[in-house]
Amino acid sequence: MLGADTIEVVMVSFEGPDQYSQAGGLGVRAKELCRALAAMDVPTTLVFVGDPERPFEETDRGVHLVRWAQQVSRRYPAGVYQGEHDKIADVCASLPRYLADEMVAPAASRRRLTVLLAEEWQTATACTLVSDVLEARGLRDRCAVLWNANNLFGFERIDWAALQRVATVTTVSRYMKLLMRQWGVNPLVIPNGIPSESLRPVNKGAVRTIRDASQTPCLAFKIGRFSEDKRWHQAVASIADLRRHGVAARLLLRGGIEPYGGQVLEHARSLGLDVSDWAEPVRDAAGVAAALAATDAALVNLRSFLPDAVVPQIYAASDAVLANSGHEPFGLVGLETMAAGGVACVGATGEEYARPYANAVVVETEDPAELASALRGLVERPELVERLRRNARRDAAEFSWPHVIDGLLERLRFVSEHQGVSAPA
After folding, report:
1. Mean pLDDT of the chain
2. How confident is the model at residue 423 (pLDDT cuts 50, 70, 90)?
3. What residues contact 193, with CB distance under 8 A and at least 6 apart?
4. Mean pLDDT of 358-380
5. Count of alpha carbons within 13 angstroms of residue 236, beta-carbon side
6. Three-class SS of residue 340?
7. Phi, psi (5° rounding) for residue 242?
8. DSSP percent split of the chain into helix, strand, coil, nearest 5
9. What is the pTM of this model?
10. DSSP letter string over 94-149?
11. Which whole-number Å values give the CA distances from 134 to 79, 153, 266, 378, in the listed order?
């Protein structure tokens, strides 16, 4: 097996750990995967489109950070995807030579193999160009190139024949693998993961604070982008269904800035649900409790940022976390909920960590009545809830980054042989 004494990893991703560079789950994946590799003593570099006002290079949690296209990003201060095409052009024009000369060649001189992990459609062309430069430098057999798809965005812009000639294509679930077969691609499946820290016990006092303030036998929580794929309307309608049948259920929600959010809240009101907007800062569990206790509205809409430490506390305090998407390449929220000892209600697409009524609730349709029925069962059967919470934490541990990386390193044996790559003797 390839390991810390034989490889160096370079990840190339648009998103990364800077606030400027985070727009979704990719930034979390890039940050946590690289940190986990570094913690296993694998020399790791993350190249990303970073904050233009921060240093070009620095080290964070053992990861060598390289912020690319900063001169372009200064013209686009709103975030990583503003001026996206100009940034892609900059990556393609200058990054391949940098990777060859500053990453692969020095690693080869240290008798190490470079593993290049590229993420999403924005880096597909760069993979081809990197391979060309390495070939010209006589270094192609010293670098294994993998390109990963976390979703289907931008697939129509990828030259799949060129990409598959130079890179091993990977994805995050068997569900995504099936969807990608329609593009003539048969990727390897390497799942997403969660940090080992996610499995630490959640602060019981914080959980009790939120729970006591909820004023309901059924507190549901939903977090994510305001997108139709996330089935927000189903979540809202299930709360209305429960309340019509005498269960005073409430939904705590934290969406994004997408316009669809207005439709979601209007749909809630059309179903007779009161909506309370909470714009005060939420710094800890007490802030969440204040939002819940300030009103008896069925929906409490958190409009301020939620700190990372608070989110697992909400997961654990809720009777159910509604990650009921109709299309989810992997479904990180459901897995994070399980790690916190919460009850995840997930969809039936890429959430392959979920076993129906063994460690989670799996919602098969978009019918609000199905979700409402599942929530009613959680209220009526505390012994079921206890079993789900216990099994959830146990099973989530199998998806910690160290376990996922162990499988990745085993896969690298095949990838290296397939690409004709070997560590220097």
Report:
1. 96
2. low
3. 32, 33, 36, 399, 400, 401, 403, 404, 405
4. 98
5. 28
6. coil
7. -60, -45
8. 50, 15, 35
9. 0.93
10. HHHHHIIIIIIHHHHHTT-EEEEEEESGGGHHHHHHHHHHHHHHT-GGGEEEEEEE
11. 31, 28, 55, 56
User: Which H or E element spans position 59?
Assistant: strand 57-60
Q: How confident is the model at residue 424 (pLDDT cuts 50, 70, 90)?
A: low
How is residue 179 written in tokens? 């969807």
Sheet holding 320-323, edge to edge: 275-278, 299-302, 250-254, 219-223, 320-323, 344-346, 361-362
Handedness of CA 195, 196, 199, 204 (dihedral sign): negative
CB count in 10 Å sphere of residue 279: 10
Query: How many other C-beta atoms lie within 10 A of the C-beta of residue 332?
Result: 25
- Each residue's pLDDT tens digit, 82-113: 999 999 999 999 999 999 999 999 999 999 99
Helical segments of 40-104, H only: 70-73, 84-98
Q: Is the pLDDT of residue 24 over 80?
A: no
Q: Is 86 helix (H, G, I), strand (E, B) or coil?
A: helix
Beta bridge partners, 351, equal none
Q: Exposed, middle or buried: residue 39 (CB in 10 Å: 0-12, 13-18, 19+)?
A: middle
Which residue is associated with the tokens 């980054």? 401
| pLDDT tens figures, 129-138 | 999 999 999 9
Q: Which of 336, 1, 21, 20 is nearest to 11 (CA)?
A: 21
